[in-house]
Amino acid sequence: MSARAAATLATSVLLLGVLAAPASADHQIQHIEPAAPAVDRFADDVPRLVDDEWGIPIGGFGGIARRAPITRAPVIFVHGNVVDHADYYPVRDDFMAAGWSAQELWALSYNGMGNGSGSSPIRQNPERDADHAGQDGLPRGTNNDVNVPDLEAFIRVVQEYTGSDRVHLVGHSLGVTLVRRTLDLHPDLAQDVVSVVAIAGANHGTSLCAPMVSRGTHMSCDEIDKDTDWLVELNGIDGGRETYDPIRWLTVYDGTGAGDVAFVGPDYALSPQLLGADELVFAGMDHNGLRMGEEAVAAYRAWVEDVDAARGGAGSDRAPDASAAGSAGDSDVAAATSGASDASS
Q1: Four-CA torsion 277, 87, 281, 97, nearest 10 degrees
Q2: Which of 73, 149, 262, 287 has the smallest CB count inside 10 Å?
Q3: Are 141 and 223 in contact (CB under 8 A)?
Q4: pLDDT the model gives residue 29
Q5: Contact status, residue 75 vs residue 116, Cβ threshold 8 Å
Q6: Cβ neighbours for 71, distance < 8 A, ≥ 6 positions apart
Q7: How far apart are CA 285 and CA 256, in angstroms?
């Protein structure tokens, strides 16, 4: 099998989360407990969270020391289905090579340890492969709604730890719709977000979900199959909720209907678009290459840097009387981290 064919097959598994084992009785079909927590690469003093659904520690990377100096608003990377934060190691490294610090670069792993489905024929990720050594490799699928509490809590941890209310969110695949859903349900957070980079997201459906047929069998397709009620609500009437101020939006996608296996054919080629967003189009690039290919990363990193400079870098846009709301958010973080301590004891 060629490298491209193997990547295509892996990506099909990635977005849908097709599983070889049955779900437990209290979870949707095609949804089983993670084999293990994802690797923890946070700085020692970063508050630890527990997965809202599974009660396991949330892995990820980020941090140097609480309130260590930063100049840019922190970036939070959000992975896709059945993988984890390790998919962003090459992206993190490219940002750091361009002058970003570990205090400014963050990622979480919702749904525990992922597998190696996030591979691309155009770039290797040996650090991720080392993280996953000895794992069973099963793709454990999930969806958007069940992971909103984890992303919301993580954003608040990063804000408190860094001292910057302003953040950037970079999502890939399912991570795009997860970011959008989280901001939709928590508009107070949306006011703090400088930019959203939406890479190969199923904003208008995916060819990996057979229309209507996949619903009820693959839990992510209940949300991101073409024309689901869930997507209609997320996008709003005539696309009126696809983008909104004060966030700057960027979509990154293939656009040919041939390069990205998640959006095959003319009916899906432009699905990653968002009305009102800036665009970076890499014709023929594969699903995971759009996230971690060096050309793609350099382009969306430069866009983030320009937007960050225009907004003023790290800091806050909240009105003075919003400090009370911030304190409430800090209390939520404290409660979540207390749960993490209980889970690990």
Answers
A1: 90
A2: 149
A3: no
A4: 47
A5: no
A6: 104, 313, 314
A7: 9
Rounded CA gap, 127 and 86, in Å? 8
* Average per-residue pLDDT for the chain: 88
Interatomic CA distance for residues 14 and 81, integer angstroms: 6
Q: Taking Cα atoms as reference points, which of 168, 167, 163, 192 lies closest to residue 66? A: 163
Say whether pLDDT at 247 is over 90: yes
| Residue 59 φ then ψ, to 5° | -85, 180
CA–CA dist 56, 58 (Å, integer): 6
Distance CA 258, CA 266 (A): 9
Q: Which residues partner with 251 through β-bridges?
A: 198, 279
CA 84, 339, 316, 45: dihedral to nearest 10 degrees? -80
**pTM score of the predicted model:** 0.89
| 3-state SS assignment for residue 289 | helix
Q: Judging by DSSP bridges, how do beta strands 167-172 and 105-109 pair with one another?
A: unpaired
Rounded to whole angstroms, what are the CA distances from 32 to 36, 51, 115, 288, 292? 12, 14, 14, 24, 28
Task: Give the CA distances from residue 116 to residues 76, 139, 142, in Å, rounded to whole numbers and listed in that order.
Answer: 21, 9, 16
3-state secondary structure of 253: strand
Q: Give me the phi and psi of 126, to 5 degrees please.
A: -65, -30
Helix, strand, coil share (%) of the chain residues, nearest 5: 40, 15, 50
Per-residue pLDDT reduced to its tens digit, 37-80: 999 999 999 999 999 999 999 999 999 999 999 999 999 999 99
User: What are 317-334's pLDDT values in tens digits?
Assistant: 998 765 444 433 444 554
List the structure tokens of 189.
């957070």
Cα–Cα distance measured from residue 192 to residue 326, given in angstroms and rounded to the nearest whole number:
11
